[in-house]
């Protein structure tokens, strides 16, 4: 067995099961061991009823007092049991599990594990896990991994597969030199991998995780350094003497650029005219007006006879940008030739677009990642912009270089991270910050409510729609799932349509739809043919429909604050007052406290740093991610200390360069493969 082997070499994984693993991007054994648990379940020592903790999973030791038998209610078979200890009793129910009855005898002591609640005035536990004392003892104290799943693949199946690899001992050679491990107190690599999956104690888990987080940050930073060295020396062979059209557009726009926008635009212009090619990040909160800066840069390139390309993370956003350019062209009679190139276009449409690009007939090229596929040849590409894409992939840059072009690169991101972190994470880029919102904005009104507020919210949405506005409703899930209790787009949209007056059109939008269908819905929403869009977070990035004034988020407790802030950024883009309604499905205190931060502030930087303070480094279980700059395992906020250590270690290495010694040989290989693979797939 080798780590590069296919997962089908494992027992119990045939082609059918393998296909399910593929859905999780697991093809090889290495992919499998790097499919880290998203959480762990701990089987704590069982306690008596008086120690019950509310709203959490409890393991209770109780004695069965009475088995009430199986009742039929509609299509449900309900098994109820009264159990208790010397002081208290608890009501237990199971649905559609009549066979459990044979396991339950009066007077027997059992362990039940579940979330207790008060129902009809009595303490109740529904659908608890059920154990006999001996069964439970075997599990007690263990930490069981819970993996990200896909439909049809159980947690147990993944566990078994990982177990086989870990037990086989074919892991990887240690690649970190001992000196780095010692200085940073890092576990050995193979120990870390097996422990992250099957930890015996919390402390072991923490130790193992630290190593893997360090690896990820360290390799990332070292790779960035290599990139920067690569770009710093690239000569700028383009020249941009003309600026008339761009200047004219600036003057004719219906608004004046903010000072911050102006500063960013000047940085860009200066870079484009300097001796070396640009690698710049423009960071600006949602709604700060990044698009226009990108537009100016693209015009500037076009005006000087070059091509510029702008890449968006979704087709919806790409199409929107394309239409924005077409509008500018018409409105201001600009001599530009925008073109769209996305994956969902027909083969013929794509071929025609590629021809126009190749012949230089199109000068502003907008699309998704398809823009840099091998089949696309540019005539004279001088500028590449990525919007909300966080980073222009290394591989993409290399591909262009192989084709003989080394364009200026501009990256635009709304990710609110503090400057100190930005310098580490975007080490290969210069940074411009747009830290000012256009002055015509009316602040969004926020509220955090519980589910009992829904009817009022629907009424409110109906009223806003009747004033001519539109609304988004966000649900965390696409469809119903057994694994998680949360609102889903498909059922919600049906329900909402029936609650709203019939003159209001609702539609749903989610990532499982075909790109063409998504575009269609988005276009109809932009044209106000759809008034209420029920969507997953696919609308989170970039989308601009200024007529929408209400953003309602269901199960807000399940989202990271920064993500919620992004969602909120979809409204408040026009001149009308906008509203954001965060519906929390949980009454927990800390959930409320977290969401209140959003209520208080509209500032992305403030929100993400407060979120961090609230979570603190103690929030280890679940390793809740901030939803920002998603590394595989590390989180730049909660693991900020490890990030700093990794950065220091990379710095030390940087000063000397990586020594050509045996000790560093494995590390060198690892860095190369990281740059090849991981750096291009991380969504940073
Ligand atoms: P983001 O930074 O989130 O990408 P956009 O570039 O989409 O923001 O801009 C949001 C809205 O603000 C757009 O409708 C845009 O036309 C408008 N806008 C941009 N700059 C200004 C400005 N200086 N004054 C007023 N409105 C602006
Ligand atoms: Mg944008």
Overview of the molecule:
It contains 22 helices and 22 strands. It is of the alpha/beta class and 684 residues long. The protein folds into 5 domains: 1-42 and 143-170, no CATH class; 49-139, OB fold (Dihydrolipoamide Acetyltransferase, E2P) (Beta Barrel); 174-231 and 649-684, no CATH class; 244-434, P-loop containing nucleotide triphosphate hydrolases (Rossmann fold); 445-614, P-loop containing nucleotide triphosphate hydrolases (Rossmann fold). The protein has a 7-stranded mixed beta sheet. Strand 19 (506-509), helix 17 (515-526) and strand 20 form a beta-alpha-beta unit. The two termini are 33 Å apart. The model is unreliable at 617-626 (pLDDT under 50). The site of adenosine-5'-diphosphate has 18 residues, from helix 10.
Q: How are the strands of the biggest sheet laid out side by side?
A: 6-7-4-3-2-5-8
Uncertain parts: 617-626
Name the CATH superfamily classification of the largest domain: P-loop containing nucleotide triphosphate hydrolases
Percentage of residues in helical conformation = 25-40%
Work out the number of β strands: 22
User: From the coordinates shown, what is the CATH architecture of the largest domain?
Assistant: 3-Layer(aba) Sandwich
Give the tally of structural domains.
Answer: 5
What is the averaged pLDDT score?
87
